[in-house]
Amino acid sequence: MQYSSEQIQDGLAKSELVLHYQPKVDFLTGRLAGAEALVRWRRNGRLLFPGEFLPAAEESGIVPQITERMFPQFLRDCRRAKDEVPGAVFSFNVCAQDLEDGKLLDMIRGSVDDGSIDSRQIEIEVTESCRIRESHSTQRTVSGLVSSGIQFSMDDYGTGFASLETLNRLPFSAIKLDQSFVLKMLNSFKSATLIKTSIAAAQMLGIKTTVEGIENEAVYRSLMHSGCNQAQGFWICRPMPLDDCLELLRSERRWPRSPIGTIRMAQITHNWQYKLLVDLVASVVQEKVVDGTALEQVHIDHHGCALGRWYYGAGQDFTGDPEFDALEVPHRQMHETCELIAQALTDGRSGRRIQSLLQRLSSSSIRVSNALERLETRLLIEEIGAVPAGSLARRDA
Ligand code: G
Ligand code: MN
């Protein structure tokens, strides 16, 4: 059954709309990282799901009324969560229309300014169902959110308007891959490839990823190595009232975890950046024009490239591991060679000199990539060893 906008407004006025929370797991730690607020309608003793009333609300343009009513409730819940589960991140769903309206930003700013919530505790998920316009007010809301340190995530990525174009236009800090791909991924090579390459593309841009709609362990495990940051779905937890969610967040419950995804991303981004770099050098040499922005990309400090950020950041957990330690020298040598290349390009040195520097760059890059591959393979073998023998069964049996 579909409800009319008057019935929904009536439900709002009677405070029948409530927020439930669906937790999200961090793939690296196996712990809960936070939860997403989802609206439910308690109507005549039944709990209605958004699919039953949100389409009508969207069509009649009353979503901002729902947001205006539910967002203060969300902020109150976040205030409670701030003390009870410090560090957990809570997300709230808005639509493009909400971004047009300055109220959302004012409400968040009010709570951040008076110290009752911490901006790092909040994430805003924008749903795909309507196009995010290029208006001045939207730009103002988005830049206001981002400059206040609030995570800004594109929901339902890969469907509707949640496209590369929107990703390119606005400063999203995260994307959420739509469940329609996830539900199919075990039986569809295409869906699985679209998910995994989207994760890699996002990581290369420094954008975090969440996969939603995980309904069984096989899907969870197949994404655990993909470099995706967070997981959400019925197999992990169904949406639940705030009290239950806080209790779960405080509990010691753990889900499967693996460091392999971060290593795989480090290797993929490393190989990718290497290829971009050699192409850039080749084009400068061939066109005989030294472009300042091209040189800037050659000149990155070894802490600042994608691999360096991982190596000197999250990767430090592996310090002491021979494969991990073996990365440092060739990686630093790569950056030193890059400096020499930049110098040679600026000085207009001969192609011969650049050729030999590119050769040197390639040797270091191969050493880096091989060390990452060895580290990943060893961890994978250890993980397989941890699964009890004899538990293999044909999936289609
Ligand atoms: O796109 P968005 O993140 O807003 O979608 C959230 C909706 O998806 C909620 O209504 C939630 O109940 C539902 N949902 C969450 N996990 C799963 C899942 O594993 N499978 C299915 N089919 N729906 C899910
Ligand atoms: Mn969502």
What does this molecule look like?
- With 397 residues, the chain is of the alpha/beta class.
- It is 54% helix and 13% strand.
- The chain has an 8-stranded mixed β-barrel with strand order 1-2-4-5-6-7-8-9, surrounded by 4 helices.
- β6 (151-157), α7 (164-169) and β7 form a beta-alpha-beta unit.
- α3 (63-84) packs parallel to α5 and α12 packs antiparallel against α16 (351-385).
- The longest helix is centred in the C-terminal third of the chain and has 35 residues, at 351-385.
- The radius of gyration is 24 Å and the shape is globular.
- It starts with a helix and ends in a 12-residue tail after the last helix.
- The model has no long low-confidence stretch (mean pLDDT 90).
- The protein binds guanosine-5'-monophosphate (G) and manganese (II) ion.
- Guanosine-5'-monophosphate binds next to β6.
What's the shape?
globular
Structural class: alpha/beta
Helix content: 40-55%
Strands, total number: 9
Q: Which distinct ligands sit in these coordinates?
A: guanosine-5'-monophosphate, manganese (II) ion
Report the total helices: 16
Task: Summarize the main sheet.
Answer: 8 strands, mixed, barrel
Gyration radius, rounded = 24 Å
- State the order of secondary-structure elements, H for helix, E for strand: HEEEHHEHHEHEHEHHEHEHHHHHH
Low-confidence stretches: none
Mean pLDDT: 90
Strand order of the largest sheet: 1-2-4-5-6-7-8-9
What is the CA–CA distance across the termini? 38 Å
Q: Strand content of the residues, in percent? A: 5-15%
